Amino acid sequence: MKKKQLAQAIATSVRKESRRLAWLASISAMAMQPLAYGAEAQAAEEAKKEVPKVQLLDLEEVIVTGTPGGAGVRKLDASFAITTLDDEAIKQFNPKSTADLFKTIPGVWVESSGGVSGANIFVRGFPSTGDADFVTVQIEGAPIFPPSTLSFLENSTLFRIDETIEGMEALRGGPNPVFSNGQPGLTTNFRLKKGGEETEGLVKYTTSDYDLQRFDGVVSGQLAEDFYYMVGGYITSSPGIRDAEFDSEKGKQITINLTKDWDNGTANFYHRATDDHGTWYTPVPLEAPGVDGGTFTYVGDATKKRAVTINASGDQKVYDFSDGRGWDGAVTGFNIEHDLGDGWQIRNRFNITDGEANTYGLVASGGAVPMSALASGLTATTEFSGRTLSPNDYVQAVGFWVVEKDIDSKSNDFSISKELGDHVITAGFYWSKYGVDEFWSIGNQVAFEVKANGEPLTGIDCTDIPGAGCWAYGIDAEGETETKAFYLADEWHINDDLRLDLGIRRESVDTDYRVDSGPGYPDGTTDIDTNVRDEKTSGTIGINYSLNENSGVFGRVSRGYRYPTFDMIREGQEVVQEIDQYELGYKFSGDHIGIFATFFYNEFLGLNYTPIPGGPTEQSGAEAFGVELDAQYDSGENFRVSLNLTLQDTELTDTDPANEGNKASRQPDWQLRITPSYDFEMAGMTGTVYGTLTAVDDRFGDNANTQDLPGYEKVDLGVILNVTEDLVLQLAGDNITDDDGLTEGDPRAVGSALGNGRTILGRSYTLSATYHF
C-alpha cells in the first residue's frame, strides 16, 4: 500500500508543467550549493550513500561478444576492440533511441535524428548511403534479425531500451566475420537482467518539457531453488520533440527472462513483446522562412489519414500516417551452456523474431519555393482550413510514403569446445532462415504549404512546383534467405601473457526472391523471380600480449563478407561485398587513467547502391584508416571525465573517375565526445552532475563531395540525485544550446544544392523519478 501511495504521490507532484519546472529549478540549485561543513558535513558523511560509477574500461570485466559460442574472456585478454556499458552508464547517457546509445561507441557515426526508429549508422569508414548496412543488434548473444539492413529497416528499429537491460557490449571488426551471423562491421549485444535469491525491483516515472509520459517497472527474484525470474517493461506516449499535434510516439513493451542454474551449467529463456512507433522525421526545407530544423515536422492533424495509390490500375487505399515508423512484434530465445567434464563444453543459442516493421511518413522532394515562383495565375488553398496562400508563402512537394514489412527469422548457433593442453578448440554450426513480405508505395508527391504541421494544397499539384522531381515507385515482394555456416576456432594460450586466437568460417547463403516493382506502381506482373546462391570463407587471426596486470597490446587481421540482400537483388546488385580489416590496439587501466586505443585500416570492395529507387546504380570500393580512442580519468574522489574520439581518413576507390579519391559520404573525418562528471553530497543525499560536449567535423552528403554538411557542436547536461537509499531523481537536458546540427542533406538531390536537410533534435529536458524496492 505504501508503494502504491508513493507512486501516486510522484505522479501527482509532476502533473502540472509549472510544478515540474519549479522542481527542475530547485534540483539544479541544490546541486550547485557548496558542501556543508562542520557537524552538518559529518552528519552528511554518515548518511552518505555510494554513488554508482560509470565503468567503461574495467579490463577485468568478462565479455562474451566475439568469442566462440559466447564462451567469455576478460577484456584484458581480448584481442579486439570492444566497448561495454552497464545499466548505470546507459541511464546517465539517457538515449532518445537505441541508435542514439550507439554514439558512445568509438568508430561509429550515428544519425539518430529520424526519431525513435529509422536511424542511419556507419562503421569505421565502411561506405554506405544510409540505414545501417554493417550493424547487428543481438539480445543475449543471438541476432534479432540476421540481415543488418533491408531498405527502411535497420536492426536498431527492432529493439527498445528499458530498465530490463543489464548492459551492452559493442564489438567492431575483430572476430565478428567468423562468429554468429558473420557481421564484419559492428555487433552490439544487449544483456538482460537476471533474477537472484532476493526479490527486488523498481518503478520509474519519466516526464519532459514536450509532455512525455512514461512508466517503467521491473521485478526479479527466485521461483524455486536455482530457478530465477525477471519481468519488466514500460508504457509511453508523447507528441514528440517535433510536435505532431497528437501523441505521435506511443509504445509498450514487456520482457520475461527465466534462468535455471545447475552444477554443470545454466539455461535461460527470454521473451520480449514490443509495440512501439513514432513519427519518422525526414529532411525539411531548412532555407525556407519560419522553419526551425530542430522542431519542424510536416506531420500533424491534417495528415493523419491519406489515400495512396497502391497499384498500376490506380486503386487507392487509406493509410494511417499517425503510426509513423516502428516495430510491432516479439523476440523469443533460449540459451544453454553445459560442462560435460574432461574439458568438453557445449553451448547453444536459439532465437525467433516475428512481427511488422512498417513505415508511414512524409518525405519532401525538391526545394521549397514561394508562390510567386510558380506559373502566373496559379493560386493555392489549404485542403482543410481553406486558407488562400499569398505570393510570399512557400510551397513544396511532399510525398506520402508507405512501406509495410512483415518479417520473420529463426537462428541457431551451436558450438562444442574442448581444452587440449594450452589450446581451446571450438567447432560450431550457425543456421538462420529469415523472410520478408513487403509492399511499398513511395513518391506520391502533392503540393504542401511550408509550415509546421502544414496542410496539402488544392489548386496546384506537384508538377506546378519547379524542381519538385515528381515520381512514384512501388513494389510487392517476398523473399526468404537461408544461411548455413560452419566455423572452427582455436584459442592458444602460449604462456600466461601471450594469447593467440584464430578462426575460420565457411558460409553458404541461399536466397529466393520474387518482386513486382515500379517505377510507377505494382502492376500484378512479376518482374523478378530468382534464386541467388553464394558461399565464401571468412577468417580472422588475432594476438594479445599482456604487458602486466593493467595493460596489454593486441593485433588482428580479418576478412569478412556481406551477401546480396533482397533490395540489392531487386536493383541488379548481385555482388558479394568483401571487407579486409587490420587492427592494432593498446589498453591500459590504472588507478586513475584508463585507455583503450585501436588503430585500424580497412579495404572494401563491391559497394553498389541506387540513390533513387528504380534509378541508375553507382559503384565503388573504399579504403579507410584511423584511430578509435576510449579513455577515462578518475580522480579517485569526486571527479571523472570520459573521452570518446574517432579520427579517420576515407577514400573512394574503383568508382566513377570523377569520384575517385573522394571522401566516403556522410562520415566525418573526426568526432569527439567529452563527458565530465562530479559527485557531490549534501543534507544526507548524494548525487552526480554531468555533461557531454559532442563535436563533429564537416561531412559530404554524396560521393561526388558536392553537398557540404557543416560540422557542429552539441551540449548535454544532467544531474542525478539520490534522495534516499531507494528514491533517485534524474534531470537531463539534451542539446541545451538548441544547435541545428545537420546530420544529413537530401539523399535524392544531385549537385551542391542542398534543398532539404535533417538536423539533430531540438532542445529538450526530461525528468525521472525511480523508486527501488
Describe the protein in words.
- By secondary structure, the chain is mainly beta.
- It has one domain: TonB-dependent receptor, beta-barrel domain (Maltoporin, Chain A, Beta Barrel).
- Helices cover 7% and strands 53% of the residues.
- The chain is built from six helices and 43 strands.
- The chain has a 22-stranded antiparallel β-barrel. A five-stranded mixed sheet has the order 3-10-11-6-7.
- A hairpin with a 4-residue loop joins strand 12 (200-208) and strand 13.
What does the secondary structure layout of this molecule look like, with pairings?
Layout: H1 2-13, H2 17-32, H3 38-46, E1 62-63, E2 73-74, E3 82-86, H4 87-93, H5 98-101, E4 108-111, E5 120-123, E6 135-139, E7 142-143, E8 149-150, E9 153-154, E10 165-172, E11 186-192, E12 200-208, E13 213-224, E14 227-238, E15 249-262, E16 265-278, E17 305-309, E18 316-320, E19 325-341, E20 344-356, E21 359-370, E22 381-382, E23 394-420, E24 423-443, E25 445-449, E26 457-458, E27 472-493, E28 498-517, E29 528-548, E30 551-562, H6 566-570, E31 577-589, E32 593-609, E33 618-634, E34 639-653, E35 670-682, E36 685-696, E37 699-700, E38 708-709, E39 712-722, E40 727-734, E41 742-744, E42 758-759, E43 764-772
